[in-house]
Amino acid sequence: YPSEFLLQKITEDNQIPVHLHVSVSLQYVAGLKGSALVEFFHGNIAEVENEELRHLMWSSVLFYKTPNVEVMACVLLSTKAIYFLLDDSFVHADEHQSDFWNKENSDCENSSFHLSCCFVLKLNDLQSVNVGLFDQYFRITGHSADHIVTCLTRDSYNTHTFIQQLMAVLSLLARTPSPEPVDKDFYSEFGSKNTGKMENYELIHPSRVKFIYPNEEEIGDLAFLVAEKMDGLTNLPSLNILLYVLAFQVNHVEGSAQNTSSLQPKTLILTSSDLFLFDEDYISYPLPEFAKEPPKRDKYQLADGRRIRDLDRVLMGYQTYPQALTFVFDDVQDQDLMQNLTLDHFGE
């Protein structure tokens, strides 16, 4: 340990997404290669001497206790725990949550010594993993509110790879075997007799960690919600969700030194007739078992919606992934302008 293949793989994965800015300390980590990266892990992050680093991933993360603060993190999976090496800006982003983080070392701020917070979730504390729609994100749940983290990979490949690596590492854990299951038929296994509603598809790993995947009903619920937002412009049976993707909306900040642009996380949903942007709650749903009350906001909140037939042109940037798209719509205030003209001028 570690093998040449693992060193090469971890080095390839150690790249910060180009569109996201991180602190100096994380830039230092991103500059490490191969064995230097493994040595850094053992010298600064690992809690046990004999644990092995198995996977590395850069991702935006959300914490259950700070659901409005999305922060960049280097996610390190070892044979003992999942480590989230966080951008130091996060500690100051949400002051009323200061008790969530230990600020003992804040006196280092002004020195040349760069400090990063590291959030540790031990594999033994892991209870379930919820995979989001179309593998755009996943939520890791431990035994309390402090131990719920969502990784917004915005990339089905990264999500799939991490889940595969996590399952492989969990297989190494020695846990007492669960009792032999009683033979169940399909309906009692997947359905609830009280509601008649299909539950989400669950895979219970031998380590007793649940991996929960969305079922077809979630898409149906989403289509119904989208149809509601359209004020009955389209009949529901013909409404198909063609695309669901986690993206960023670019807001240009004028008046600053270089007219910088800020990125607002949005969920983009494309149907056969409309384009929608939603603010989605990626961390609170489905409700954790210990939740006493529902979250303060709905899972989906409509931010913007336009009809495809009002789309004038789409401008594409020339940079590589992630691609920037600009949708230009006809600036018509009244969506049914033509119909109203007809009624006013040619009707009684």
Describe the structure concisely.
This protein has 348 residues and is α+β, with helices and mostly antiparallel strands. It has two domains: 190 residues, PH-domain like; 114 residues, Roll (PH-domain like). The chain is built from eight helices and 15 strands.
Give the C-level CATH assignment of the largest domain: Mainly Beta
Supply the CATH superfamily name of the largest domain.
Answer: Pleckstrin-homology domain (PH domain)/Phosphotyrosine-binding domain (PTB)
Molecular shape = globular
Total count of domains = 2
For the terminal residues, how far apart are their CA atoms?
Answer: 85 Å
Q: Sheet with the most strands?
A: 9 strands, mixed
Number of helices: 8
Topology order in helix (H) and strand (E) letters:
HHHEEEHEEEEHHEEHEEEEEEH
Spatial strand sequence of the major β-sheet = 4-3-2-1-7-6-5-9-8
Q: Which structural category do the helix and sheet elements fall into?
A: alpha+beta
Uncertain stretches of 5 or more adjacent residues: 192-198, 337-343
Which percent range fits the helix content?
Answer: 10-25%
Task: Specify Rg, calculated over alpha carbons.
Answer: 23 Å
The number of strands is: 15
Query: What name does CATH use for the topology of the largest domain?
Result: PH-domain like
